[in-house]
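Example (one chain per record):
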Amino acid sequence: MQNSPITKYQPWGTIDLPDRQWPSRTIDRVPYWCSVDLRDGNQALPIPMGVKEKLELFQLLCDIGFKQIEIGFPSAAQTEFDFARKLIDDQLVPDGVALQVLTQAREHLIKRSFESLQGAQKAIVHLYNSTSPLQRRVTFGMSKEEIKNIAVEGVRLVKKLLPELPDTEVQLEYSPESFSDTEVDYALEVCEAVMEVWEPTEQNPIILNLPATVELFTPNVHADQIEWFCRNMQERNKAIISLHTHNDRGTGTAATELGLLAGADRVEGTLFGNGERTGNLDIVTVALNMYAQGLHPNLNFENLDHIREVYERTTGMSVHDRHPYGGDLVFTAFSGSHQDAIKKGMDLRKKEGDSDDTRWQVPYLSIDPRDIGRTYEEIIRINSQSGKGGVAYVLSREFGLDLPKAMHPEVGLLVNEKADSESRELAGDEIYATFKAEYLEKNDPLELLCYDTGKESGQEEVSCSAKIRVSGEEKEVSGRGNGPINAFVHALEQEGLKDFKLLDYRQHSIGEGSATESAAYVQLQTKVGRVAYGCGINSSIEKSGLMALVSAYNRTR
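Predicted structure:
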């Protein structure tokens, strides 16, 4: 990197728009969506898709609900041409879906594109040429007028060839490529020259696609460009303004959302943002951002895991674990404070009524994972950084154990120490196994072998006779009390084993019907101040309580 002062790079300019309107607007309408997975996305793959993979991905895009799909650059390669023909000849295009084909503004490429569209019901011919100063100087060595003429002549030819598609509803899309670093007044000049030749109407408007081919500046400048363009163009009602953002600065989503605020009507992008360099816009993210704000995007992502699986298999790409909405870990919390807040939010939602009519308000989760085919079980996962709330949530959600709140810290510490010692994440079964070994299976120094309780006629107190093993020695003990646990404690006291007081006792059922079990929790404090919980689980409410007391006794030793 160059030391300061940096002379190699200069800040990009701004747009003179002192009365900009977009900052005070909200996104309150759904744009036209156009998938470019099969063209822009495919172009960026180390190994491009074959016809089989493209067909599967095309079907997926139709199932999601895309009505405009850029299927390729049929004039550039035979595979692309053959794919277009297969879709049309085999009648694989659903009603209402427009096939979009890309072509440079060159005569033989335009003519070949028209050949590929013979018999299509709806088509978008996407014409482009580069307009930026850098491209004019470095790539083409042409003047502004010469560059504009390329666009105009290309549109003239498209218009001339329309009779060759008599049964096709054709719409023109024009892109001044590298719009992001083209002078906005010149980009507008070129687009209006194109409109003059094409003669669009309100019923059949032209699509003017304004691509951030390379993302060069902050999203607010992009929004200024779009608003300036929309406000200064003539016959705005005869044009659909389209966005096509790349992600070189990592702000493609923000640039698109601000571009919509600035007046754009349409969005081009790909599933999960696949594309050249750092990628195209991720339509999944922008669409679900709208959904999370209460605006349905008219795209179906109810089974996002399936969409991701098809995408990864057909493209050979992978979705990052932290990718918005689609990543493995995006509905996961490792932080203890996050886990605790999520658990409380879930519990409160369940208490207040978990329905679609109840506003979604769960800390740290912007949408309900179930809406996109994810599950609650994936939300909280446990490692050494996890907190008491997360461990308690897993035990509650997956195993039905509603631990007393005061018990959460000691159980959380136990599980975290195991995760830390093994330097890995623990699965739910492993968490329960750790809990079981510590709370349900400790039989030393005290073990309850068998017992019997009852009341004598006319007596209020309960009697308890039990056979126990203490430090390897079997003993028979008996006692009386106001309940089974109190009677058993009295029996231990008779043998000099009571060096504790009972601080807490509670029970709850696990499961329903004949399979119901009872979980009991007992907290003891020894004379030396050691405090610990124990747990017992049994089909007998009475026995689960006694087991919990024995568990707590052993854990205080």
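Caption: The two ends are 62 Å apart (CA to CA).
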